[in-house]
Amino acid sequence: MMYAGAALVGLALASYTDLRGRVIPNWLNYSMIVSGIALHTADSFLSSDPHMLYSSLAGGVIAFIAGMVLFKLGAWAGGDVKLFTALGFLVPAPYGSVPAFYSAYPLFPFLIIVNSVLLSFPFVMAYVFYKVFTQRDLKSKAVELMKLTAKKTVFLGLAVAGFAHLLGWLGASNYLVVLPVLLTAFLPAPLKYGIPFLLSLWAALDGGASLVFYSLASMLAVSGFFDAMTFGRKHALRAKKRVSDLEEGDIPAYTYYADGGSVKHMEPSLWNAFREPKGVLVSSLNANGLELKDIAALKRHGIKHVWLKESVPLVPIVLLGAAASFLFGDLLWLGVRLLLNSS
Question: What is 2-120+313-331's CATH topology?
Fold first, then answer.
């Protein structure tokens, strides 16, 4: 509980500074790092077991490397990397207070991030719906997204429920359900939807109606989550701004680069992160945002408007994820277990 308490206090202070000024002060990050190493050193000394200290040092190094990868991909700013590194030193593992549903991530802060993403979904959805209903041009895109989400939900929900029931009837493990679902996804449309429908209908008539309902609801949540995050990143969480109104710290949504006599832009993606073009004026991979020299470069090339990312405070969400991790463990695995055990 000592390590969990220290982590939660640190995240609470970081949440306050993030909400107030969109910054995580270095003194806080470094204090958490020093506290993590000091507490683990004391634990190792008192127990005559150096593994506690080794765990802290290894956790900090792994967290730093993972954070730097996300920094290079433009997902995190420098302060986010330092905070994640601090969590690696402070709580590399849950130790004796392992929650009931804890899946063995290589580092406990990884679980915190996964839970944070899951818990952020309602807030992201609320903001996306707000933008859709207040911006007319987003409505048609949102309708197409909902149609796609509905199709995926019907297929995945019925397939998981139907094959889980079939595996249970055969006496096989429900954890094998992924294989037939993947194989069915490559079948022609009539078979792709027909087989899951018939199997799920059999499941419902054979006393598994709750399984079918829970499977559909779960797949709706999963598909909706990923589709909403993608829609938000590509459409709702972007805003057009005049170059003359740009400020330091604004984060471009695209990478703008000079190509011959024109200026083009490139959509950010994992693939594009490793093939940045020549003549880059401003990069979407720079999570620290624009500098004055970047704004000047845009003006020199005659660009009038650019698209910016609408960022949201990250640390308060991480605080919720950390609290959930310490109390409940892996929320995603908990949901999967509930789904499979309901059959």
Answer: Four Helix Bundle (Hemerythrin (Met), subunit A) (1.20.120)
